[in-house]
Protein 1
Amino acid sequence: MEPELVALSEALGAACRERGLLVATAESCTGGWAAQVITHTAGSSAWFERGFVTYTNAAKTDMLGVRMDTITQFGAVSLETAGEMAQGALANSRASIALAITGIAGPTGGSPDKPVGTVCFGWCIKAQDGKMKPSCQRRLFSGDRESIRRQSVLHALSGLLERIT
């Protein structure tokens, strides 16, 4: 695995262990790559609870509770869907913090409003009172499918680390 991804996983693990946090992931276009990076680090079972790969709309609704109305109104690749994915990862796990990734990695599937490389992210931390308000971002990455997916994993994990620290 690339040194940059290894270092990010190790930093994330140290931050989670220090704060007693468990992580869950909800991934679409990255197909579990973020979870793979996390679990590359030995001892990650102390801070990684589970990962959801929800590639289809049905999987997003069935596994994470994303509302079909959200997908219909805003699309599978939207801030709204990413936010609900992150909330769903928390609601369906024992994790205290979650990330979500949904996007268009290409080479096809883009549109004028959402070209190839459009990726939406959601991060959510479970508050003491049980509330889960997601923080979401949309990014446009360039490159081929692999490059877009890699940039997405880096951004998602970096964003999670920022929110923890």
Protein 2
Amino acid sequence: MRRLLNAIYNGAAALAALCMVGLLIMVMASVVSRELGFNLRGIDSYAGYFMAGAGFLSLAHTLKKGEHIRVTLILNAISKPWQRALELWSLGVASLLSLALAFYSCRLAWQSFDFNDVSTGVDATPLWIPQLTMALGTVVFALAFVDEFILEILNKRQSTQNAEMVRSE
């Protein structure tokens, strides 16, 4: 099960990297087209879609690598039993919030598909297509939070403090 979950997180990160490459291509194409005196219609919208996709698809991998910003000021000031209770509470709330975000992201993509909603730009892209990256990213993010919550309950969660965090606090 652990290998499958890690493969899902890494797969989402790989898709985020592909979105970054797509963003680079869109920006380069936009710059080149302006320099050569012609306009590629809708290219700015596609750059935005790729940027959003990269952001959402990378959320779970970033969480699992311990790279999300954590405010540990209170955690470091309380005893171990209270630290564990606060971690459980925080991960429980984060799991619920991420599940709600995933639900509404999927619902938004489905409604855009159902209503044939298109972008208001000149490209008239069906909005459910770029919204799929948001929906997929939030679903994997919710899965990662639930995974962290279960690992914390089972007392098998790895410490997420990396060397950069230790130096900066």
